[in-house]
Design a protein that fits this description.
By secondary structure, this protein is of the alpha/beta class. The chain is 48% helix and 17% strand. The chain is elongated. The structure holds S-adenosylmethionine (SAM). The site of S-adenosylmethionine has 16 residues, from loops.
Length: 543
């Protein structure tokens, strides 16, 4: 390898600009068929004849066109791929490169220095919101995505297998190119597309043109905050590489929850080489895409198979199988972990461990490890409840409380008894309802000597000693019921009924000076002053 080889890499930008200019001038479409004299091309595009000759001769050197006779040019096979009317056309890709996307690549040094996307530095706006204010650029982007799909499509359909899904949900499905093919391939399948509102019109128009409108629903929403509509096949194509790990896990979890029993997630992304295999042709393609993402999206990046498996795993999904697709992408079929395994893993990796933001040393929940060892954590599931009906949710919780009460526990230490109810299908609204129901039931349960905690992905409850740390977030929604313990003053000191229930059980110990923890004593004494009349009242009712 010589300095000339590396100069070639540097001058790659000039090659790219030549191809972009060729497309910007409209020449690939103009030269669709036959050969064209320079003079005629010059007139059609309004160019300087000498400069156009130099461009076309350069493109001949790059094998995009051919000079068939002196000053007569025709497209080579590469040039035909730049026409806008070929199915796998690179025409929109060239237009994006010639537009703001290419400008963002120019800002790579900013991205590398700051870790922030150059696109936002240039426009002041993230990529997709920017496109929503620029419909022509959005159309070019959609066309580029649809063209890229063509090579992958046969492999995607094979990997998904012959069984038609009843409902296929394409999350971030853009203008519906992939879903159109799935619905055409499976005439009994219904399709739902979740994307930003501006995708409604192009996706609906596409489905109408294809005669699929009656089996298609567009769902305008934000996949980072909204529930994903339920289905038995959930598709995510080139979404996760736009996102950092936290956002990617949020979307993947939402997709996992959206799967009907037996359903599958199909994730289509590039796979970067694991460690040292950086030299093959696919490594080149994935490296280019990775830098593309770095310049455009906060946190966006290509991931290796191992990284993708870990991401899926931490989002509650197992890999069922993988199929390589042309161009370096891989289709990964995922299915939800068994929820019980997921919950136990969360116990092990979170609740039983120390956490730097907890505000105190020791595991997040000191009871879980001894209770797990003693075998006193019972886990039950309510599979079919979305949690949105408050009456149903309340009834379910009170039924679980009754089970906790009536259960025969093998172990004598009551503090370790706990009943966990896993609610895998709880929607986002259901999670909010769970927060409310927990707050409503808390005094009543405290009076019965019981504590109930709710945990879910969006839970805003904070740690007792660090109000900036949302301590009760779990990968799957659940509630835990246990007997009241000494430390529960931390959770029961600001409500009169709760405090009195607590004082009834533990007041003597405080009175006799038998509580060593200064924080417990402080909370107890303050609440005792505040609620000392002994009258029960609402939250915060001081005497
Ligand atoms: C890279 S494109 C992929 C489109 C399509 N899946 C494909 O394979 O061509 C990402 C898509 O996600 C959509 N998107 C980005 N952020 C979104 C969000 N927060 N909520 C919903 N859709 C979003 C964009 O509008 C765009 O259609």
């Amino acid at each position: 390898m010589t300095a000339e080889d590396v100069r070639r890499l540097i001058y790659g930008q000039i090659v790219s600009k030549a191809v972009q200019t060729f497309v910007l001038l409209g020449l690939p479409n103009l030269m669709r068929d036959a050969e064209h004299p320079l003079e005629q091309l010059t007139r059609s595009v309004g160019a300087n004849p000498t400069s156009l000759r130099r461009l076309l001769r350069a493109l001949a050197a790059f094998r995009v066109v051919q000079e068939t006779a002196h000053d007569t040019f025709a497209l080579e096979p590469l040039g035909h791929q730049l026409r806008s009317d070929t199915p796998r056309t690179a025409h929109p890709t060239a237009l994006l490169a010639a537009n703001l996307v290419g400008q963002a690549w120019d800002g790579m040094a900013h991205a590398v220095r700051t870790g922030k996307p150059a696109f936002e530095e240039i426009t002041g706006t993230p990529f997709f919101p920017y496109l929503s204010d620029n419909p022509p650029l959005r159309s070019i982007f959609d066309a580029s995505q649809a063209a890229g799909l063509h090579a992958e499509l046969p492999g995607i359909l094979t990997a998904l297998g012959p069984t038609p899904p009843r409902v296929a949900v394409d999350v971030g499905g853009g203008d519906g190119a992939l879903l159109e093919h799935i619905l055409t391939h499976h005439p009994g399948t219904r399709g739902v597309l979740l994307d930003r509102p501006e995708s409604r019109e192009p996706a609906t128009a596409r489905m109408k043109r294809a005669g699929l409108a009656d089996r298609f629903t567009f769902h305008a929403g934000d996949f980072l905050t909204d529930d994903v509509p339920t289905g038995d096949l959930v598709l995510l194509r080139h979404i996760v590489h736009d996102l950092g790990d936290d956002d990617a896990a949020t979307v993947l979890r939402a997709c996992g929850r959206a799967l009907r029993p037996g359903g599958r997630l199909a994730l289509i992304e590039m796979a970067t080489p694991e460690t040292d295999a950086h030299q093959d042709e696919l490594a080149w393609d994935t490296a280019v895409m990775d830098l593309y993402m770095m310049c455009l999206f906060a946190g966006g990046r290509e991931r290796s198979t191992q990284e993708m498996t870990e991401l899926l795993h931490s989002s509650g999904l197992d890999v069922a199988n993988r199929t390589p697709l042309p161009g370096g992408a891989v289709l990964t079929l995922g299915r939800p972990h068994k929820t019980e395994e997921l919950v136990i893993e969360w116990f092990r990796t979170y609740l039983m461990r120390d956490h730097p933001e907890l505000g105190r040393p020791g595991p997040v929940c000191p009871f879980v490890e001894p209770a797990h060892r003693a075998g006193t954590i019972a886990i039950e599931h309510a599979e079919d409840i979305d949690g949105e009906d408050p009456t149903e949710l309340r009834r379910l919780i009170l039924g679980t409380v009754a089970k906790f009460h009536d259960r025969t526990w093998d172990h004598g230490n009551k503090t370790l008894h706990s009943l966990v109810l896993v609610l895998p299908q709880l929607s986002r609204a259901g999670c909010q309802q769970l927060d409310q129901t927990q707050a409503d039931l808390k005094p009543e349960l405290a009076t019965r000597g019981l504590m109930m905690g709710q945990f879910h992905e969006h839970c805003a409850e904070t740690a007792a000693r660090n109000h900036a740390f949302p301590v009760s977030q779990s990968p799957v929604p659940l509630i835990a019921i246990r007997n009241m313990a000494l430390h529960d003053i931390l959770f029961l000191h600001h409500d009169a009924r709760c405090f009195h229930a607590y004082a009834e059980r533990f007041g003597d110990r405080f009175a006799k000076g038998g509580v060593a923890d200064r924080v417990f004593v402080q909370y107890y004494e303050r609440a005792a002053v505040r609620f000392r009349s002994g009258q029960s009242g609402g939250r915060g009712e001081a005497v």
